[in-house]
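@channel sequence for tomorrow's demo:
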Amino acid sequence: MAFGIKRQEIVEWKRKIDNGKLAFLTHYWLDDRFPGCNTVTKVGCNNLEKLAAWGQKYGLKKEWIHVRKDGYSHFDLLGQRQIDILHKEGLLEHIWKNNSSTLEE
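structure tokens (generated this afternoon):
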């Protein structure tokens, strides 16, 4: 279940993807299959080769891409890997969102 996300954040994420850029979207998320994870970062791009090459830098496998017919294919980043990648990408505001959710528990 996704929550804590604004419509404008989704619109901006999709706009970047539509323009062929890598786009990052972090939001609160709960799923019993992933205990201890309360946020997810979706890293999307409409160019699957570009997305796969980006993911390869971080040890992500091409087959882990959630390929979508609507053009908004993406990797889902969770847990420590999520934090490590966001840090390396310099996306501190996404890390803060991740850490603030932990602080609220």
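heads up for whoever presents: Residues 44 and 74 are 4 Å apart (CA to CA).
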